Amino acid sequence: MSSETPEIPPSGSKHGDFRLSDANLRRLPGQIRQPAYDRSLISPGIVHLGIGAFHRAHQAVVVDDLLAGGATDWGIVGASLRSPATRDALAPQDCLYTLAVRSGAGTEHRIIGSVLANEVAPEKPGQLIARMADPATRIVSLTVTEKGYCHTPQTGDLDEHHPDIVHDLQNPGTPRSAVGFLVAALARRRIAGAAPFTVLSCDNLSANGHTVGRIVTQFAALRSRNLAKWIETEVAFPSTMVDRIVPETTETDRAAVSSALGMTDAWPVVTEPFTQWIVEDRFPAGRPDFAAAGVQLVSDVTPFEHMKLRLLNASHSALAYLGYLAGHETIAATMTDERFAAFALQVMQNAAPTLAMPEGTDLAAYSASLRKRFSNPALHHRTWQIAMDGSQKLPQRLLATMQDRLRMGRSIDTHALAVAGWMRYVTGTDEQGRAIDVRDPLAAKLKSIAESTGPVADLLAPALLEVEQIFGTLGADPRMRSAVTDALEKLFKVGAREAVRTFRAA
Question: pTM (2 decimals)?
């Protein structure tokens, strides 16, 4: 996935007397793959905003491969926009960490050395802006999750009333948001007469490059029309599609990795064997030879992005909400129930007619590969984790397909059950009456709606469909209201497991 994975701060315990570091690489067992280059010769060329688990299991691995091939001026400076946890864990390790690739056949361990330093934005925002403004920085990439763009998901426009945006407009030298940092650094480069960096979004946003370009330009226009015009004409925002499943790292994972290394790694990442990165080839400031590391460079990433959002991410979210409600802790556990596995396939099959793919694309084979990946018993990807921030994810993952199917005169019952699963989930109480820890930017608003209507589908569904930040005009469509209300009523009446077991698409 390309949404940033939340990480749990390490306990700080040590394995034996050694900690992963440059000096201790020689102590690693022979089967542990190490950086195939001299890290002391590497200089930074990329600043990455949002250096969490997903980036460290995906883009940083690609760059590690490129550095091994001789791209010595493309190291990464990571930046955390909120917590110092990643910096605090990686600093004693010289920013080294372990990539643990798990499958049914076992686990392969690899030490990644492409991250050279970590900034913590709230501590020294000026220092991060200076890093980004440095002409040596030619790419600024992002994995800040959908909510990190401070936009309205349904429209793709900047949310001018977002607290971080309000703050950043009033305090341009000490921003909080990714957008604020991008514009502050670009403004400094413009004043200095330096060429701008390329902005490379790696998040699950619809047309992520175009969307980020629009958001950044809109924010800049609130500061200066001339700055906005310069960004619009001079800055490249290539779109990307990124794909790799990266569960959150647990204490058990840390212990297993440290045992394999024979030394402590406080901040490893766990992932699957599959990895994919498709990038529009627009880098005026230069780029490393991405293709040499398996990146697919294209002129238009849109079809591939839609394929992933509407097949992988949509079915993942459907499994997350309905699987959680049915009592399944992980996606793999949910997939052991044949009816849930069949339902995930129906979500993919119903999305397929809305896609316009290049000739030769085998959607059936892609869907089959997704079901296999979801079923990987070695990955403990929690349904609760995927369920986070649904208000930001639904428009791209589920609602866009529903709009297209309604336009085509086709049934939306399959996706309506997934949306109803989200509605049942955000009430904050599960089917056994236990509290659900709902993590969402709109959690307070959603909870208020649920409390005002109670668990009554005829009241709750229409009330949630009126939240324009999520549903836009789609929520007023009587076909949408009918399908979602019926699905939610069934969930309240028989529960998620039985609703999925007896589901029959129209």
Answer: 0.87
